[in-house]
Design brief:
- It comes from Nocardia vinacea.
- Belongs to the short-chain dehydrogenases/reductases (SDR) family.
- This is SDR family oxidoreductase.
- By secondary structure, the protein is of the alpha/beta class.
- It is about 45% helix and about 15% strand.
- The chain has nine helices and seven strands.
- Helix 1 crosses helix 9 and helix 4 runs parallel beside helix 6.
- It is globular and about 45 Å long.
- The N and C termini lie far apart (about 35 Å).
């Protein structure tokens, strides 16, 4: 049994890491998948891997910070697959982000960072929601982080924004039969994490977890598929932590 037969899902930031894992998992569940990313070479490779395995996928180039680019991606999806049912807002500046304080980060970099890591989810949602209405409704998953509840400078601030965006849009979209939720991962073992976070800091985080290991992209798949599927038909506006117990919220 597959949960998304004949449905179409867009996954942004799907050329590698967590996004690629989401895209492959959706294809395995019967969805037509749009592998959306700025990196055409890697994105096309992920789409080719899916189709070689018997799945349905295309690559779509997108800059989520640009509303016109988001709209063009939505239009491409409808031309290729006829509808849009699901969206995963995973794209973010992370692996190569500059580390700095809110008090001293160059303003131009801050604005660029937020335009991708926070505004990008809104741009994509604005681009697809009317297509979802035409399809009879849909579901969206935003990628948050436990950084929203710990000190992480402008990265953490962007994730606070993602959480608020998820909750606000839940009200705006609910009447159109569109649900929107977010996943907040803890430390995940990806190349991007290894690049941006010194190993000594990662090791310290893992020691403090109730479940003392780093997460993997596969650990996030179950939550993503559940939130997108009809199994979560009465779930919206929620932030789901998948973090080994890093953050307790009462």
């Amino acid at each position: 049994m597959t949960r998304f037969p004949g449905k179409t899902a867009i996954v942004t930031g799907a050329a590698q890491g967590i996004g690629a894992t989401y895209a492959k998992a959706l294809a395995n569940e019967g969805a037509n998948v749009v592998v959306a990313d700025l990196n055409a070479e890697r994105g096309k490779a992920v789409a080719a891997e899916i189709t070689a395995g018997g799945g349905s996928a295309i690559f779509g180039e997108v800059d989520v910070a640009e509303p016109e680019s988001a709209t063009a991606l939505a239009e491409l999806t409808v031309r290729e697959f006829g509808a849009i049912d699901h969206l995963v807002n995973n794209a973010a500046i992370y692996g190569d982000m500059k580390l700095n304080l809110l008090l001293s980060v160059p303003w131009d970099y801050y604005k660029k960072f937020m335009s991708v890591n926070m505004d990008g989810a809104l741009n994509m949602t604005r681009a697809v929601w009317q297509h979802m209405v035409k399809a009879g409704g849909g579901s969206i998953v935003n990628q948050s982080s436990t950084a929203a509840w710990t000190y992480s400078s402008f990265y953490g601030l962007a994730k606070v924004g993602i959480n608020g965006l998820t909750q606000q849009l839940a009200f705006e979209l609910g009447g159109s039969k569109i649900r929107i939720n977010a996943i907040a991962p803890g430390p995940i073992d990806t190349e991007a994490t290894k690049t941006v976070t010194p190993s000594v800091i990662v090791d310290d985080m893992v020691k403090r977890l109730p479940l003392k290991r780093m997460g993997t992209p596969d650990d996030l798949v179950g939550a993503c598929l559940y939130l997108l599927s009809d199994e979560a038909s009465w779930v919206t506006g929620q932030i789901f932590n998948v973090d080994g117990g890093q953050v307790f919220r009462s």
